[in-house]
Amino acid sequence: MLKIVLPKGSLEKATLELFEAADLKVRRDSAVQYKASIVDPRVDEVRILRPQEIPQYVSEGLFDLGITGRDWVEETASSVESLGEMHYSKATSDPVRIIVAVPQASEVESVADLPQGVRVSSEYPELTRRFFAERGIEADIRLSYGATEAKVPDIVDCIVDITETGRALRAAGLKIIDTILVSYTELIVNPESLANPEKAHAMRQLKTLLDGVLEARGKVLVKLNVPKDRLEDLIALLPSMKAPTVNELFGEAGYAVETVVPKATINVLIPALSDAGATDIIEIPIAKIVH
Fold it and tell me: pTM for this structure?
């Protein structure tokens, strides 16, 4: 039913891990294969291609849905619909930013300070052209094929580049003077496919699985028993997504409590629960959380 295109390159590993955790394992003969498959009745075909190309192919209807960054949707001005952001990326769960940067020693503090005819290097020529044109700045835009930050100040005056943590820019002696776009990874779909009720239902079902994995990341299920007279004190210790589940134990021997908590706090939480009278404490990994 569905033709899916997934990103090759920096997002590839994280995307394949996400799909496997969602029980949508992507199968291919080798790590360099572009054709793949998912054993699922909703999926007919899978391709793994560069994220720069994905918005256009989805827009043209060659694929029903794909994963790429908002940056490439905007760069290619592709007519696609978004089923929502997927908050994961190659280094962190933070979004990437398309920024304008100049040398740290430059007197330029904002885009308005840049001169007419400013030389700009970028892997996003169309996005860059529109950005400067909207601000009335004539820019000499040079397409970059990588190592963009290495081209100032000798080759160009400023760059438009992507950053996730900012480390590479700082290491190159650059400072950010503006942000053009904040970009998350997105699940994009072809508008005609979304208008097809059967395909739309299948696509949203797949997104439910993927979202469930992302929601569960960094969380664990904690189960424990507690005497009746210690219940309220113990509940006060529990950070939870919602109210904890509390059930009375057989024979009125106390209560069984369970709740979802952040994994990052578990090393402090479990000893505190034990001190508060909890027994039989169990920590359980969570694969998915579907609301």
Answer: 0.87
